[in-house]
Amino acid sequence: MNILVTGTRSGVGKALAEHLVEQGHQVVGCSRRPSTVDHPGYRHHEVDLTDAKALRAMFREVRREFGHLDALVNNAGTSSMNHFMMTPEKTVRDIFDINFFAVLNSCREAAKLLQKSPGPSSAILNVSTVAVPWALDGQLAYSASKSAVEQLTRVMSKELAGFGIRVNGIGLPPVRTVLTRTLPAGMVESLVDRQAIKRMCTMADLFGPVDFLISEQSGFVTGETLFLGGVH
Ligand SMILES: NC(=O)c1ccc[n+]([C@@H]2O[C@H](COP(=O)([O-])OP(=O)(O)OC[C@H]3O[C@@H](n4cnc5c(N)ncnc54)[C@H](OP(=O)(O)O)[C@@H]3O)[C@@H](O)[C@H]2O)c1
Known about the structure:
This protein is an alpha/beta fold. The protein has helices spanning 11-22, 52-66, 89-114, 140-161, 178-181, 187-194, 203-214, and strands at residues 2-6, 26-31, 42-46, 71-74, 122-129, 165-172, 225-227.
């Protein structure tokens, strides 16, 4: 499959890109800074996804090189922890720019290439977080932006079904990355303790659910966000 994963320089995106190329897929990744994934099946684009023009140029390049996409994984994102009273509007807008608007724009551009997939269906997978169902205090901007992504997943699943494109999400509990390194001491442990499965989510825990949601194994699944770790 031809798979585009956003935010592949570090963390979840890098682990997914490395996993997917090892499975034999052709993976296109992107981030603002240079690639850290070194594999013949991997192409990297240095792009700021909040720049809509640069984002469109990347998709044009993907179309020229590959002709079509079979899956898009919207992983790039950022978070910020603060009481909403102490969060400047600019910070909130910046979070929405990458966590929501870049996802919306990527879906719009990718849909043109996903509908050309030769398979019975193609897939969009959006990364969300337990901060949404748990409505975590101190994470208003982050969780609101990801709530918007979960709603996008539901609505878009209907609007793209006629084009053979399924749209799902994966909801992550804490995973050790740069993003969680900035959380206050003890917070990760207390979140893990709220999960039904009381251990830290590893990158390996993501691979099965991601493989399922982007492949034909989930050919009759759309509009769902699958949460890991037992968070409900
Ligand atoms: N880690 C967790 O515990 C956790 C839990 C729940 C959900 N999530 C979600 O999982 C996803 C990945 O998080 P992570 O923990 O792996 O974070 P991370 O290590 O900070 O990785 C984020 C990636 O996105 C890229 N990126 C950020 N802003 C970008 C932009 N404007 N344009 C292009 N690329 C950009 C970064 O590369 P550059 O800096 O080079 O641009 C990096 O490769 C996010 O959507 C996050 O909300 C994570």
